[in-house]
Amino acid sequence: MSEPRLLLASQSPRRRELLALLGLPFEVTVANVAEVPRSGEPPAALVTRLSQAKARAACSERGRRGAACAETIVITCDTVVALDGALLGKPRDAAEATTMLRRLRGRHHAVYSAVTLLETATGHALTDVAETRLAMRAYSDAEIAAYVASGDPLDKAGAYAIQHPGFHPVAEVQGCYANVMGLPLCHLTRYLRAWGVEPPRDVPVACQANTGHRCTVHMTNDE
């Protein structure tokens, strides 16, 4: 498949921002999938299942609307926060966001994202899961209240944005920073290359410049 169209199935502005760092043109659509975990489902299995379901749903939706979906690579991602075996998705309201942030405060947890690429011409799909471990700082109740009042936590797994300029909730990152934002770029790039799609930009350099975070994972892999 030569120069396939890229279709990002996500409403997240953060994922659109991150995907744009590759320097490849892409379109955006939505994928309506109920993000409900199954009983006892591990976090990696959950995000894998949901990202794959989103890819299929995005292509089906475009077909229902009469939009072409041939010669396209659909890109989807799903992210979840795991704390002591409990899964923290997007909070339903401000009260749940407050509860999540209090549970995370001063604790270690993990963020899992699955990125799926679906090649519509063949039906082939690739899925990779990134795991990042984080330590949260001991932010105060007043900081939680101000952050929740901003409305920023309500569309984010775990009720926080790692990159938020005012809240700065994370004290330590072990793994991919972009994964916590919702789209692990190096995982995505590896799979695009597997299908002959080469981003024109140096993705780790572009990612670090955008996030302001020095990627120790990339540095380690280069050594």
Keyphrases for this structure?
alpha/beta, Maf protein, 7-stranded mixed sheet, 8 helices
- The SSE order reads EHEHEEHEEHEHHHH
* Integer-rounded radius of gyration: 17 Å
Structural class: alpha/beta
Secondary structure: helix percent: 25-40%
Structure description:
The chain has 223 residues and is of the alpha/beta class. It has one domain (5-222): Alpha-Beta Complex (Maf protein). The protein is 36% helix and 24% strand. It is built from eight helices and seven strands; from the N terminus they run βαβαββαββαβαααα. Strands 1, 2, 3, 4, 5, 6 and 7 form a seven-stranded mixed β-sheet that branches. Helix 3 (94-104) runs antiparallel to helix 4. The radius of gyration is 17 Å and the shape is globular. The mean pLDDT is 91.
Q: What's the helix and strand layout?
A:
Elements: E1 5-9, H1 13-20, E2 27-29, H2 43-64, E3 72-83, E4 86-88, H3 94-104, E5 108-119, E6 124-136, H4 141-149, E7 170-174, H5 177-181, H6 185-194, H7 203-211, H8 216-222
Parallel strand pairs: 1-2, 1-3
Antiparallel strand pairs: 3-4, 3-5, 5-6, 6-7
Helix pairs in contact: 3-4
Quick take:
This protein has 223 residues and is of the alpha/beta class. Helix content is 36%, strand content 24%.
